């Protein structure tokens, strides 16, 4: 008999054959409570965020027209020289400072990329295969 346990609940468990499982369950609860009471308190370190996002609520939103005007420089102030005999502008003679500041040209980006990040060159056979839409 379990010490300190008497009465109808004990008798009912004994009749149903659940006394052993009840002991195991009680022992499991006791072990959990013992572990909880004997664990040392863990100090929680303050969270330091690794990424900081801009405060979007306090910054004023620009209207679409204002943002477009801020990005596009005026064209009437600078004239692009044309090469003799062609209608295309000569951009080699223009200093880099006079060019539009902002996003660099795609070809300039490709030249500065390391080889492992560049697009792989395609053979003529691959291009023809793609153009005709697959195998014949």
UniProtKB/TrEMBL annotation:
**Primary place of residence?**
mitochondrion
Give GO cellular component annotations, separated by semicolons.
mitochondrion; ribosome
Q: Which domain of life is it from?
A: Eukaryota
GO biological process terms, semicolon-separated: 2-oxoglutarate metabolic process
Keywords assigned = Mitochondrion, Ribonucleoprotein, Ribosomal protein
Q: Which InterPro entries match?
A: Kgd4/YMR-31
Subcellular location(s): the record lists: Mitochondrion
Gene Ontology molecular functions:
oxoglutarate dehydrogenase (succinyl-transferring) activity
Q: Which family does it belong to?
A: Belongs to the alpha-ketoglutarate dehydrogenase component 4 family.
Q: What is this protein called?
A: 28S ribosomal protein S36, mitochondrial
Q: Which gene encodes it?
A: MRPS36
